[in-house]
Fold Riboflavin biosynthesis protein RibD.
Amino acid sequence: MTGAELRHMAHALSLGRRGLGLCWPNPSVGCVIVAGDRIVGRGWTQPGGRPHAEVVALGQAGAAARGATVYVTLEPCAHHGRTPPCAQALIDAGVARVVASVQDLDPRVSGKGFAMLRAAGIEVVTGMMAEAASEDHAGFFLRTRQGRPFVTLKLASSFDGRIATASGESRWITGPAARHLVHGIRARHDGVMVGAGTARSDDPALTVRGFGGRAQPVRVVVSRLIDLPLMGQLARSAKDVPVWICHGPDAPSEIRKAWEGLGAKLIPAALQGRQVDAASVLQGLGKAGLTRVFCEGGGTLAATLLAADLVDSLIGFTAGLAIGAEGRPGVGAMGIGRLIEAPRFDLVETRSVGADVLHRWRRRAG
C-alpha cells in the first residue's frame, strides 16, 4: 500500500466518524472515490442510517466513478433492505477497484459484498487500516455478535478518586474544557446512560450542548422501580428528546404508565439479586438498536457494569483537588478481595484538557 492509499483510507475513516451517534443501528461508514490522483466523491452514512456512504459518494462522483478506486471502511452491503445493496451500486457505476478496511460481520453481508464485486470483475483489496476501522465499528460488531452495544464508562473525579463531597456536591470537580469535551464524546454515542441515583441527585439533562443543532443521543436511565422525579429535566423533556428507562419486573404499573404518558420508552430487564441485571439491560438496549452507549455513572451502576465485565472503554477526567475519604467514590462496592479479580484495562492515551488530565483505557484482550 502506498502513502497516497493510506491517506485516502484515513480520510474515509475520518468521514465515517462524522456519523457516529447518528445512524444506529447501522454502522457509520466512510467512503472516498478516487479517479487518477483526484478525489471525485466522498460520503458517510447519513443520519438514521440512510443513504449509505457509498451511495452518497457515488452521487457526488457521477460518471467520474467509472474506472475509479473506492476506499471504504466496511465491506459494502450485499442485501436488499430499504435500499438496494451498495455492492450492486458500485458494480453499476463501473468502478475498477474497491479497497476496504474490514469485512462486515452481519451474516446478511459477511463476505457476500466482496464476492459480488469480484464476480463482476472488480479488484478487491481488504485489510487496509483494519485496526482503526475495527475500533470505529466496534459497537456495530458487538451488537451483531453479542446483541449488546459497546459501553464507554466515564468518570470525572478528584485526584483521590471522589466524584462528589459527602453532601453530594459535584459541580464542578473538573473545568469547562473537560466538560465541553464530554459533550463532544456524548455526541459520538447513540445513548447516554446513568443510574437512578444520579438521575435523582443531579437532575441531569444528559443532552449534547455546545455543538450546534444536531440530533440528540437517547437518554437512558437504569432504575429498578422507576423511582425517578416526575417533574425533573428528563421527565419534562421526554417528548422532545428520547428517554428510555430500563426497569425491573417489579416496577409499579402506575409509575410505568405515568412515564409512558410523558413519552418515555420502557425497557424491561431481569434482576440479579436486588439490582437490575446489567447484561439484561444491555441486551435490551441492543435489541432496541443502540450500538454505542456512554455511561456517566453513578458509582453503583459503574460497579455493576465493571463487575459484569461489560465495560469496553474507560474515560477518566482527573482534577487537581482532593476531597478525602468521606467523599463519594467514583465506583461502588464490587466485592473484590484480591487484585487478580479486578478488571484490567490497557492505557490508550493521556493528555491535558484545560486544567484537568484525560486518560483513556481499552478493555484488555483475553
Summary: The two ends are 30 Å apart (CA to CA).
